């Protein structure tokens, strides 16, 4: 069996319990086995009661981005499988994800997670109208996901699993991905501290993979690799104030930093402004409908608007101006 120099890095708060045990069971049956199993918890957390005996436990400041990056810093292998605490996968998962990186096709690889795409039917139609998630009818079919100027994405739900090929992607869920550790460090995601600044790192996955794409580090999708997202209490459903604020704040900063500023010509910047404005208008229409249907309060809508206003101020701040520019690959 091929030996692969890799670690498993798990970000957790220690409260996923049975879902976390399912992940550990998956790790135990991986072939080949990882050289390290690194578990990163928030400061002052208790160790999870579910353990397999070979873990290396580390603590750092709580944050979806911070904990992953801390795990990468502690990692001593060339490659790593980064996981949330609520996923499970088969024993050949690593071999499949390692393929495109071993063949020089990319620096990151993921399995498709169709459950993260909009449900087919009315929901997918609404998402397409808003420009938040659009089926790739008019976009490239050799990609899994393409990032749009609205900050949404177009997606290809029908990947061919029979030909053994790979698909490029500009974004993917951060729940589980495989990486060349040095490439991960080169992205300098610790510079994007705005992601974790308001209690919820909205668009963290899109930020990492799209920044990687801008810098020339490709992410490849392996269609026949499979894993299950068990959702161990990290769901973003509901109207949590931190989530509402962060979604608006992070979306606008992402748009300005990685879409608007990356346009070479004035026309591109105008189109980018119009695209984001279009999305914001439709998002407000959606929120208004939610208020009318009593699915959201006016106060919660105001929190979302406050996040947008704060982001517009932030991009004019000295802190934002000091962020290192994105170096193209």
Show the helix and strand layout.
Elements: E1 6-11, H1 18-28, E2 36-42, E3 55-60, H2 64-74, E4 79-84, E5 87-88, H3 93-102, E6 108-110, H4 122-130, E7 133-135, E8 145-147, E9 153-155, E10 167-169, E11 176-180, H5 181-186, H6 204-214, E12 219-221, E13 228-229, H7 241-260, H8 266-292, H9 298-314, H10 318-321
Parallel strand pairs: 1-2, 1-4, 2-3, 6-12, 7-9
Antiparallel strand pairs: 4-11, 5-13, 6-11, 8-9, 10-12
Side by side, the strands of the main sheet go 3-2-1-4-11-6-12-10
How many β-strands, per DSSP? 13
Fraction in beta strands: 15-25%
Low-pLDDT parts are none
CA gyration radius, whole angstroms? 20 Å
CATH class of the largest domain: Alpha Beta
Please report the number of helical segments. 10
Report the end-to-end length measured between terminal Cα atoms: 34 Å
Q: In terms of structural class, how would the helical and strand content be classed? A: alpha/beta
Helix content: 25-40%
């Amino acid at each position: 069996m091929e030996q692969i120099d890799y670690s498993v890095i798990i970000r957790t708060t220690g409260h996923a319990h049975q879902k976390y045990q399912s992940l550990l069971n998956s790790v135990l049956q991986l072939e080949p086995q990882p050289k390290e199993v690194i578990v990163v918890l928030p400061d002052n957390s208790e160790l999870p009661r579910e353990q397999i005996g070979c873990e290396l436990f580390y603590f750092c400041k709580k944050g979806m981005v911070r904990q992953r990056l801390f795990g990468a810093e502690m990692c001593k292998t060339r490659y790593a499988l980064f996981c949330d605490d609520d996923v499970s996968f088969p024993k050949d998962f690593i071999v499949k994800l390692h393929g495109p990186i071993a063949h020089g096709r990319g620096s990151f690889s993921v399995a498709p997670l169709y459950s993260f795409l909009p449900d087919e039917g009315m929901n997918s139609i609404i998402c397409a109208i808003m420009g938040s998630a659009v089926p790739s009818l008019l976009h490239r079919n050799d990609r899994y996901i393409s990032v749009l100027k609205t900050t949404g994405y177009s997606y290809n739900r029908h990947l061919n699993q029979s030909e053994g090929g790979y698909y490029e992607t500009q974004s993917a869920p951060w729940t589980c991905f495989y990486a060349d550790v040095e490439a991960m460090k080169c992205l300098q995601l610790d510079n994007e501290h705005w992601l974790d600044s308001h209690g919820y790192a909205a668009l963290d996955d899109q930020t990492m993979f799209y920044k990687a794409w801008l810098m020339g580090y490709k992410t490849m999708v392996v269609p026949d690799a499979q894993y299950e997202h068990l959702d161990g209490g990290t769901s973003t459903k509901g109207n949590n104030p931190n989530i509402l604020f962060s979604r608006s704040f992070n979306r606008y900063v992402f748009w300005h930093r990685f879409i608007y500023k990356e346009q070479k010509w004035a026309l591109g910047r105008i189109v980018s402004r119009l695209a984001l404005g279009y999305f914001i208008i439709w998002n407000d229409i959606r929120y208004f409908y939610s208020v009318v249907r009593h699915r959201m309060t006016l106060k919660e809508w105001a929190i979302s608007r406050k996040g947008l206003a704060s982001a517009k101020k932030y991009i004019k701040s000295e802190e934002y101006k000091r962020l290192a520019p994105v170096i193209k690959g």
